[in-house]
Amino acid sequence: MNEAMLAAGGRPTWAEIDLDALAANFRQVRARVGAGVKVMGVVKADAYGHGAAECARRLEAEGADWLGVATPEEGFALRRAGLSRPVLCFGGFWDGQAEGCLALGVTPVVYRLDMASALDAAARAAGRTADVHVKVDTGMGRLGVRHDYAAEFAGRLRGFGHVRVAGLLTHFAAADEPGRDCFTGDQLKRFRDAVAAFRARGHQPEYEHMANSAATFAHPEAWGNMVRPGGVLYGLWRDVLPPQAGEPALRPVMSLRTRVTLLKAVHAGETLGYGCTYEAAREMLVATVPAGYADGYVRALSNRGRVIVRGQFAPVVGRVSMDLTLLDVTDVEGVRVGDRVTLLGADSGRVLPAEDLARTAGTLSYEITCGVSARVPRRYVSAE
Ligand SMILES: *Cc1c(COP(=O)(O)O)cnc(C)c1O
What we know:
By secondary structure, the protein is an alpha/beta fold. Helix content is about 30%, strand content about 25%. The two termini are about 35 Å apart. Pyridoxal-5'-phosphate (PLP) binds next to loops.
């Protein structure tokens, strides 16, 4: 038995990634901001579960100016996959990664002086200059140099001759909440002050960037000269954008699919699944599908989710378990073993957006797509 034989066939649970939808969403962003603003395609966390290398490749082909990741490891993986656009690493870097960032052209975000020091040493040893983007914390309270310390930080950075501040950035805490527009305005003003402080101390950053998806669509005053959208590229927007963004024509990119493995008649009064949480109120036809919470079909959808089978919605019955989920297909005409089941995404003109699953499960659409686990193979489709 060789590898090819072992890889043949297999469990019919997969995530279909529509690269044409990704491209169309990218073009929507490009059209929104115009040619004068650069676009960084954010592909951190394996492109929100969609597959970083494949998505980055398509974004590069569509003209993304930069790629954004969370960790150096993610940046190195993009380089190994042959991606050539500049890569910004939002999270900075950790012990021992300064050299790798420098060697592979992964530009780190910097927010502590010892980071500048490590890069300075690595760059000096390599006879080079290390580009960095400095993050300013203007109100998120997470990563970044506090805005009221930015001027001093800018001054101290002058001490590192092999480090060049190529960009300045900040991140909004509530760009998606119209009720917090005042706070967003404060963040913007603090950022502008920090930029001025860096320039006054002799730094000449080419890039000033602030905008995530929400700010890209709702706060043009915060575009700077580059935007950093993630979610909207993957068609995730209903729980990401504020109402003033309107209803952009963004397409879902991921569809999570499986197939009916077993059909059985269940009698009134019988219970289904762990904990006997569902009791049949009538004679039912129940389908078992080979996908569960270990695949990222979250357990909070137990007795609450719905799927698409033969162009019809069918409810999830009983608890979602690790590897299996049960569906009430009593009303699905002609249902058979092997029928395709869509747990998330589009099928036969019907759509189950990740945002809907997220609302039912009490979370954000990003967590739904990020949560589709490594056990689920990604299949990339493109007609263009
Ligand atoms: C994740 C992230 C983004 C993208 O945010 P979306 O809401 O997905 O558009 C932009 N900038 C930074 C620093 C991030 O961490």
